[in-house]
TrEMBL record:
Transmembrane segments: none annotated. Residues 140-368 form the Sigma-54 factor interaction domain. The keyword Lipid metabolism does not apply. One of its GO terms (molecular function) is ATP binding. GO terms for biological process: phosphorelay signal transduction system; regulation of DNA-templated transcription. The gene is zraR. It comes from Cupriavidus taiwanensis (strain DSM 17343 / BCRC 17206 / CCUG 44338 / CIP 107171 / LMG 19424 / R1) (Ralstonia taiwanensis (strain LMG 19424)). The lineage of its organism: Bacteria, Pseudomonadati, Pseudomonadota, Betaproteobacteria, Burkholderiales. It holds the Pfam family HTH_8. The modification 4-aspartylphosphate is found at D52. This is Response regulator in two-component reguatory system (EBP family). InterPro entries: AAA+_ATPase (IPR003593), AAA_lid_NorR (IPR058031), CheY-like_superfamily (IPR011006), Homeodomain-like_sf (IPR009057), HTH_Fis (IPR002197), P-loop_NTPase (IPR027417), Sig_transdc_resp-reg_receiver (IPR001789), Sigma_54_int (IPR002078). Residues 3-115 form the Response regulatory domain. CDD domains: AAA. The keyword Nucleotide-binding applies.
Amino acid sequence: MPHILIVDDDENACAALAEIVAMEGFTSATAGTLREARLQIGWRMPEAIVADLRLPDGNGMELFEEVGASGVEVILTTGYASVESAVEALRAGATDYLVKPINVARLQTVLKRLATTGELRAEIHSLRGELRRYGRFGRLMGSSEVMQAVYDQLARVAPTEATVLLIGESGTGKELAAQTVHELSARRRQPFLAVNCGAISPTLIESEMFGHERGSFTGADRQHKGYFERADGGTLFLDEITEMPAELQVKLLRVLETGTFMRVGTNRECHADVRVLAATNRNPEEAVAEGKLRADLFHRLNVFPVELPPLRARGDDVIQIANMMLDQLNAEQGLQRRFAPNVLDSLRLHAWPGNVRELRNFVQRAFIMADDDLITEVQVPLQVAATQAPGAAVVSVPVGMSLADADRQLIFATLEQCAGVKKHAAEILGISLKTLYNRLEDYAARGELPEWLRASRNDSGPSATG
């Protein structure tokens, strides 16, 4: 029977927690100080510890040193909650962070998840063995060292309740990484919802996130449940988090801290038990500096950052992924097409600015264009050459230039190369058309658009340029 150590200097709190723990099928021991807790751990190593943050002889986080890398889950409780203490606790390795008076339903949910932790860790251990052999981990693929490091990070954080911030260029697989985290967590039988914050109208995003009541605005002819309610018990993936309006970021921070929110058109609080995973293709610290991401929200999301490497940094992974995509198409169509050796060499050399998304488009085009079972480079040239093409624009990025300035130059150069066709430029850049429009609106508001692009916007409008 799983054993839990309860550490709190309030005897009544200890007794209440022990009763809840017993109802969930755990045995328990109690301690009122760090010294007593260390003695209890010496007598019997628990499967989990529920400890107050403030104890008479120290801080509950000191118990992390006692359990080390043994896999013991630590749940911290406190009557003096703050964003800083929550972030510090979760970064230190806490499974959860509960504010007093403790929400019994939430604690019971956490305990139910703890009961499956052993099963989850065994599954992840098996998956890690599988990835060493076949270069796969959940929904992700690749055998390179940089991806092995990513797999190790995801394996550590998946069974916990920590918020994860996925950072990487567009097309690097951030949503696949988020799905992998969900599927290796105790929430895997509950919903996984992915939301692109840059693809929802700013006037509707609050309603989409938190829902609305009937009659709350024109056209609201029925009650609508938002993403948080629909993801209750599961995982909500917020992609392009820096595209979320600032006023909504405040409300998101409140949900992350309290688990409560209000639908548009009501003052009644709703509760949702949701694990949030977020992603951005920007440098988040620069997004904070530019006012695109609130600093307090960034620190709350950045509990466990994971950086997804670009495809050009993953060596022969590009060959493995391309062959896997080709195998899927062959299976669907009952064919046996394969890449010629010179095509594989070109795949290795190409820079892949659109990353895995660009590679998937290339494989699909190559499959369609092939005249026989051998796909040759002549039949399907890469859209963007690995080396400088004649007449192509050159973007100079001097050392010391900010990423924001480099992004702006690259966007303008790509648009110019595409004759102002925004849809084509967005595909090459590996970003959504909505994101490209948002960036251009920002540049226009700051007076940073080049003359030719201003003229294009004024003369022809969006229909002529994408």
